[in-house]
Amino acid sequence: MSRKRSLGLAFALVLVGATGAKADAQSAATKGSWTAPFAWPHVTIHTILLPNGKVLTWEREDAGSLPGEGIAPAVVWNPANGSFTNVTYSGFDLFCAGHSFLPDGKLFLAGGRYIDNVGADETVIFNFATNAWTPGPKMNAGRWYPTNTTLPNGEVLIVSGDMSGPKTSDPLPQVRRTNGTLRDLTGALLKMQLYPRMHVAPDGRVFNSSPTKRTRWLDTSGTGKWTLGPASKFGLRTYGGSVMYEVGKILIMGGGNPPTNTAETIDLTASKPAWKSTASMQFKRRQLNATLLADGKVLVTGGTSAQGFSNGNGAVLASEIWNPSTGNWTTGASMQIPRLYHSTALLLPDGRVLSTGSGKPASTHDIDRLNGEIYSPPYLFNANGTLAARPVIGSTPASVGYGQTFFVGTAQATQISKVSWIRIGSVTHASNMDQRFQSLAFTKVSGGLNVTAPANANLSPPGYYLLFILNGSGVPSVAKFVRIG
C-alpha cells in the first residue's frame, strides 16, 4: 500500500473515531470535545475551506530545502477520506499572502514572501475545481502580510503588506477588478499595521477594526477615501481576533504584548457607532484564532498568555466560547497541542472546527506542530453527552439571488428555530479574511423552509456560504454550500 493511501486511511479512522478524547461524555455537553491529534504533512500557516468541502493548506519553506528554493509546500485535504493531494505552486512563495474568495469560489491571493524577506508583488488564483494555479497581474510593490477583502461588487481590496522589510508597509490600497486588472486607490494612501482586520460594513464601505486603537472606514469607489472611526478601548491588539458575528456587529478580543483577555464590540448599524466592553475572556491570549460557529457564537482557541512574540510557556490549551446574546464567555474543552504563531482554526461544513499548525519557525519553548485536532462544539451533544440527532437539509438551490426567497427541503421543518449562513473561511496569522455570520429570515412550509437571502451584497458579499439549519435545541445540520450573487 502506498504511503499516501495508508496515511489517508489512518486519517479517515481518526475522523470517524470517538470525539471524546479530551472530555468525558457529560462534560462534552457543556464544553465540547476534541479528537486525538492526527498527522499533517506540514505546518498549516494558511488554511482555506474550499467550495467543494475540501481544505487547502500551505506553509513557508526555507532556502535550499526544495528545488527552486523559497517554494512553499501546499496540499488539499479531503475530510471524507483523510487523503492529501499535493498542489504546491512553483511561481513564488505564497507564505504570508493575503487571500479571499472571488464570487465564483476561486481563491485570490495577493503577495507573499521571497526567501530574502522582500515582499512578493505577484498575485495568483487557485481553482478549487481543478487544483490549478493561474498567475495574475503584479501589484504596485511587494506585499508581505497584506489583507484581502472581497467587496460587494465582486472586486477585491488589497491593503498593507511589507514591501522590502520591517516597517515598510505599502501605503497604496489596490483593488482587483472583476476583469482581473488592478486599480489604485491613490486618494487613500495610508501606512497600516500588517494583516489589518477588515470587514465590509452594511453601507458598503470597508471597516478597519484592529489591531490599532484608531479604527477607520474606507470608501473603495473612485480613488478611495478614508474616514476616521471611533477609537477602541484597549489599544494595540497585535495577533488578537476580530469577527463580524452578525450584520454590522463586530467582536474584537485578545492580542497585545503582554496579552490581554479583554474584548469589545461595536455595532456599525447604530447612528453613532461606538466600542463597548463586553465580558473578558477567561484567559489572556495573543496568537489566538477566533472562529464563528454555526449558531452564531464565537469560538476562541490557542494562543499564549505569556509576554513575548509567541511564548510557549504561556500556551493556552482551553477553548472558550462567547455568546452574543449574553456577552459572556464559557470555558470549553482543552486541546492537546499548543497552537501559537502560525496556527489556524477553520469551521468545517459539519459544524466542527479544524485546529492545526503552530511553528515554522518554532516559537519560544515550543516546536513545529505537524498535526491537527478537530473540535466538536457543545451544540453537537445531548445533555448526557451522547451525540445529538441533527436536522438534515435534503435540498437547497446551488445559487441564489439577493433578496430571493428560496426553498430548503428538510423533514424536520417543524423543529427548526434558526437558519444561518457563514462565508467560507480563509485563515492565517490569527485572521480570517472571509468569515462573516448572518441569521436568515425563514418561514415553515410543507416539506421544508422558505428562506430569504440577504437583501444586498453589502450584507453578504458575493460568493459561497455554509447554510445551516438549527433545531429548537440549537443543534445544527451539516451545512450545504450555497452561492449568492
Task: Give an overview of the whole structure.
It is a single chain. A 6-stranded antiparallel sheet has the order 6-5-4-3-33-34. Strands 1, 2, 27, 28 and 29 form a 5-stranded antiparallel sheet that branches. Strands 30-39-38-32-35 form a 5-stranded mixed sheet, with no helix packed on it. The longest helix has 14 residues, at 3-16. It is globular, with a radius of gyration of 21 Å. The N and C termini lie far apart (45 Å). Strand 7 (98-101) and strand 8 (107-110) form a beta hairpin. The protein is mainly beta and 485 residues long. The protein contains 2 helices and 39 strands. Residues 1-23 and 63-68 have low confidence and may be disordered.
Number of helices: 2
Strand count: 39
Which sequence of strands runs across the widest sheet? 6-5-4-3-33-34
- Mean pLDDT metric: 92
Q: What structural category do the secondary elements indicate?
A: mainly beta
Uncertain runs: 1-23, 63-68
Regarding quaternary structure, what we see is single chain
State which percent range the strand residues make up.
35-45%
Radius of gyration: 21 Å
Terminal Cα span: 45 Å
Biggest beta-sheet profile: 6 strands, antiparallel
Which descriptor suits the 3D outline? globular
Helix content: under 10%
